[in-house]
Amino acid sequence: MTEETKSLNFIEHIIEEDLANGMDKNNLRFRFPPEPNGYLHIGHTKAIGISFGLGEKYNAPVNLRFDDTNPAKEEQEYVDAIKRDISWLGYQWAQECYSSDYFQQLYDWTIQLIKDGKAYVDSQSSEAMAEQKGTPTEVGTNSPYRDRSVEENLDLFQRMKNGEFEAGTHVLRAKIDMEDPNMLMRDPIMYRILYAHHHRTGDDWCIYPMYDWTHGESDYIEQISHSLCSLEFKPHRKLYDWFKEHVYEYSKDEYPLQPKQREFARLNLSYTIMSKRKLLKLVEENIVSGWDDPRMPTISGLRRRGYTPAAIRKFVETVGVAKRENVIDVSLLEFCIREDLNKTANRVMAVLNPVKLVITNYPEGKEEWLDAENNPEDENAGSHKVPFSRELYIEREDFKENAGSKYFRLTLGKEVRLKNAYIIKGENVVKDADGNITEIHCTYDTDSLSGSGTEASVRKVKGTLHWVSIAHAVQAEVRVYDRLFSDEAPGNHKDKDFMEFVNPDSLSIVNAFVEPYLKEAKVGDRFQFQRLGYFCVDEDTTADKLIFNKTVGLRDTWAKQKKVAEQDQNKSQNQSKPKPQNQQQSSRPAIEEIKKLGKKYTNYPPEKQQLTRAKIQELAEKVPYEDLEPLFGTAVKKAGTRIATMITLGVLLKNGQERNGNIDEFIAKALDDKNDLLVAEAQQI
């Protein structure tokens, strides 16, 4: 195996194998198929990067296709935003496609399926159909309408299309197998009646195809070679192939290539919500200012906050392509933007919490324009001029009247350097009636100007402060952002709504002072405010008012905060832990009973398995998620315990437990397992 082969991800291995087995490289075609029911978020960047990255690697076309099959939730605004975001990331699509463009072709194929006895109109309620589907361990039962004649099905389906029935009275189902162990194959719905205005087709249709029917056939029409999707679609692959293979018989001359579906792990990020539904709730309830609020994980929000396409693409590249899901720490994303901006952002000075500094021995009325290097990481970045005068603003946090020996900022009797300027020494302070410092008085070393070449200019002092000349300062609004959620997994708490974890301090607005160089800054320009972090010019900026968004700090402060919080929590728990006492042993916890039942589960006959399954479900009501998660790592040979764990997980999810990376990984492993009972339980979830 060559070094180049070793570096391929598993999807690239699949493609290379297909090419080695005779596939024409000219037949390679990929697609990114978003649903236009919300803005793209950071989780989508992985799918975007994979598909468009493969297009770049193999010089193959990549379609942008909008899977617009649900007009009740789709809008042109979302279409426009998605196109804007993908272009901003630096990708170009070959064709702009819409599933709605294929509605007539899908309808025509459906008529052929009905004629071949492969689809029928069902007139039951949704509740009846759901009950009829059975469970992973119980086969489904046929609909009483399953054996309608071809003529009756054709008539009813045509009348559905003509708008003769109310929504919910009829659906069209594929006729597959109600006993298939994969529940998605138990006569899935292909069409439903829906009276809603479509953003492209208007009111031309009142029946709309379901996603599983539309998606695969859209791939087929576009002759996509490799249909790449996230891991939750793996159980759908069997249905994807069933539809594809039947349609192929109708149109193989026109569409000779059959797509191949393959799945990869989604991108999950800590301190982040990835659900479009939940993100929409944040917008609708005015927790944020819109989809592009800089606190949102949307691509639009990240762009407005100051993130760069290069940083996001580097993040996706670093995360890589995997078959197993996990949760990526958001600090990795922050690291990537920090690294990028360190190389590209000009350094400037801004003061966010000002206190007045007066240099008493500096001549009144005098001003100097000093050289300030734009970016020490880029030798071609040049420099700009910054004004210096007798009265300056410095950060209030950069002065202490009384400080210890380890304090290296300004204090009385000690020296620090002003960035790009002189060495100063604290002399005294002026206070108001409440004892608050209103002015700091100092003196400066007249020979210590940075870069002047004098002996004093190279004298070492332990601290360097940023500053702004009061006479020249430009007022600016600075929006300082923190993480939108205070919890690492805000959507994964069984008994709590994710909204409970919204950080009330995620935005603070500061009236700051910046150097005059920034008066010429344009919307989107990014800067490093020295010693403070990276900031960009917000789109709300006007000719009269500069507004900056904080992109990220210079260092990851959250890691330190988290460590301190964990230490405090452990200390509190140890203090409150009761001392051991001679007590009777408490009753066995529910999770232990479940483990005991699971040990012999696979040895039981079907009847006893059903009874045991019911008992596990009953016990699962008393099991917290924290007790269950450790069982996700149960050894493969202990199939019964893993089945019991999956049954319990199903109950927890039904009761509101949010899915997370560990849950999805456990389910994904189960779907790949050789034990049919475990696979069946995983499919039901």
First-last Cα distance: 39 Å
Helix fraction bin: 25-40%
- Strand arrangement, major sheet: 12-27-28-29-25-26-13
The name of the CATH topology of the domain at 276-345 and 478-559 is Glutamyl-tRNA Synthetase, domain 2
Poorly predicted runs of 5 or more residues? 1-5, 576-586
Please count the helical segments: 20
Beta-strand percent range:
15-25%
Please tell me the CATH architecture of the domain at 276-345 and 478-559 by its name: Orthogonal Bundle
Shape estimate: elongated
What average pLDDT do the residues reach? 92
CATH homologous superfamily heading of the domain at 276-345 and 478-559: Glutamyl-trna Synthetase, Domain 2
CATH class category of the domain at 276-345 and 478-559: Mainly Alpha
**Major β-sheet, in short?**
7 strands, mixed
Briefly note the structural class of the backbone. alpha/beta
User: Total strand count, please?
Assistant: 29
Would you spell out the secondary-structure blueprint of this structure?
Layout: H1 3-6, H2 10-20, E1 30-32, H3 44-58, E2 62-66, H4 76-88, E3 96-98, H5 103-115, E4 119-122, H6 126-132, H7 150-161, E5 171-174, E6 189-193, E7 207-209, H8 211-221, E8 226-230, H9 237-251, E9 260-264, E10 268-269, H10 276-284, H11 299-305, H12 309-319, E11 327-328, H13 330-344, E12 346-348, E13 350-351, E14 354-359, E15 367-373, E16 383-389, E17 391-395, E18 399-400, E19 410-411, E20 415-418, E21 423-431, E22 437-444, E23 464-465, E24 468-469, E25 474-481, E26 507-514, E27 526-529, E28 533-537, E29 546-552, H14 557-576, H15 590-599, H16 606-620, H17 625-628, H18 639-654, H19 661-671, H20 676-684
Parallel strand pairs: 1-2, 2-3, 8-9, 10-11, 12-27, 14-22, 18-19, 20-23, 25-29
Antiparallel strand pairs: 4-5, 5-6, 6-7, 13-26, 14-17, 15-16, 17-24, 20-21, 21-22, 25-26, 27-28, 28-29
Protein name: Glutamine--tRNA ligase
Binding site for L-glutamine: 67, 211
Enzyme class: ligase
